[in-house]
């Protein structure tokens, strides 16, 4: 398969490296378009693919074009892309907030898949929600899905509007997790631990709890109850969380992210 990636920042290169790792594409068939001279030089040194700084005829020779530029930069590249795109080429957009219809209109091209990955994709442990234009056939969609799954796991959504919820829940989700971890590390520091010890206690706790969620045949409520004995320390903490409406605050924040994603999609 031949692939071009337009915009080789962290997420674009997460996809590129995953494709190479799983032998889904060879370096000679991976075209990396990066306008930054410094970034281009770095990519050439890494020998991650064929590196160019402009969109040219070679883009029209690939099977799949991945759009991973910043949303505000799409207007500066869509005309050059429109001039070289061929009718049978697939477009996979991982740009936040730009709907399929807008991409189709600006590129004058119908075969568009839109996806929302998250940053753990850089480790091959991401989760990506994706959807597709009605013109994309099932065979092509499965090929794109296979590529996406090289970065972790994926979920297909019939309704493109639900990508705003994906953006809020899993796209932005790592930041919420880091926010809670940071608060816990800060609490450890206030209780007398140095940064290293507090960080180790919290990170290993999070790692172990994650594996329990995935392997224990219990609901989240049951897992909480298994730690929170009546009248004990965990119950005291949970009571304080409830008094501060922590759960509702988190839900409100995530819904605010969804609302902002919708605003961006609607221009």
UniProtKB/TrEMBL annotation:
Gene3D superfamilies: NAD(P)-binding Rossmann-like Domain, ProC C-terminal domain-like. It catalyses: L-proline + NADP(+) = (S)-1-pyrroline-5-carboxylate + NADPH + 2 H(+); L-proline + NAD(+) = (S)-1-pyrroline-5-carboxylate + NADH + 2 H(+). InterPro entries: 6-PGluconate_DH-like_C_sf, NAD(P)-bd_dom_sf, P5C_Rdtase_cat_N, P5CR-like_CS, P5CR_dimer, Pyrroline-COOH_reductase. Pathway: Amino-acid biosynthesis; L-proline biosynthesis; L-proline from L-glutamate 5-semialdehyde: step 1/1. It is an enzyme of class 1 (oxidoreductase). Coiled coil: none annotated. One of its GO terms (molecular function) is pyrroline-5-carboxylate reductase activity. One of its GO terms (cellular component) is cytoplasm. Residues 2-97 form the Pyrroline-5-carboxylate reductase catalytic N-terminal domain. Its EC number is 1.5.1.2. Its main location: cytoplasm. Residues 160-264 form the Pyrroline-5-carboxylate reductase dimerisation domain. It holds the Pfam family P5CR_dimer. One of its GO terms (biological process) is L-proline biosynthetic process. It is found in: Cytoplasm. Keywords: Amino-acid biosynthesis, Cytoplasm, NADP, Oxidoreductase, Proline biosynthesis. NCBIfam families: proC. Belongs to the pyrroline-5-carboxylate reductase family. Catalyzes the reduction of 1-pyrroline-5-carboxylate (PCA) to L-proline. This is Pyrroline-5-carboxylate reductase. It comes from Spirosoma oryzae. The gene is proC.
């Amino acid at each position: 398969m031949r692939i071009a990636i337009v915009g080789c920042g962290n997420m674009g290169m997460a996809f590129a490296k995953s494709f190479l790792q799983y032998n889904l594409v060879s370096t000679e068939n991976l075209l990396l378009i990066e306008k930054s001279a410094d970034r281009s030089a770095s990519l050439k040194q890494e020998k991650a693919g064929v590196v160019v700084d402009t969109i040219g005829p070679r883009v029209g020779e690939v099977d799949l074009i991945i759009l991973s530029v910043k949303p505000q930069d799409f207007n500066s590249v869509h005309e050059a892309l429109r001039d070289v795109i061929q009718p049978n080429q697939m477009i996979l957009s991982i740009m936040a907030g730009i709907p399929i219809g807008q991409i189709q209109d600006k590129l004058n091209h119908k075969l568009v898949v839109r996806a929302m990955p998250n940053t753990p994709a850089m480790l091959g442990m991401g989760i990506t929600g994706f959807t597709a234009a009605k013109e994309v056939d099932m065979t092509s969609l499965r090929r794109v899905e296979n590529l996406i799954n090289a970065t972790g796991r994926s979920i297909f959504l019939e309704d493109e509007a639900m990508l705003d919820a994906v953006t809020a829940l899993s796209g932005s989700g790592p930041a919420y997790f880091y926010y809670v971890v940071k608060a816990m590390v800060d609490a450890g520091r206030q209780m007398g631990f140095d940064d290293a010890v507090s960080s180790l206690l919290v990170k290993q706790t999070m790692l172990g709890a994650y594996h329990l969620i995935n392997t224990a045949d219990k609901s989240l409520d049951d897992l909480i109850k298994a730690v929170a004995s009546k009248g004990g320390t965990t119950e005291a903490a949970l009571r304080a969380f409830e008094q501060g409406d922590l759960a509702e605050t988190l839900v409100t924040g995530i819904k605010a992210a969804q609302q902002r994603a919708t605003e961006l999609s609607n221009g």
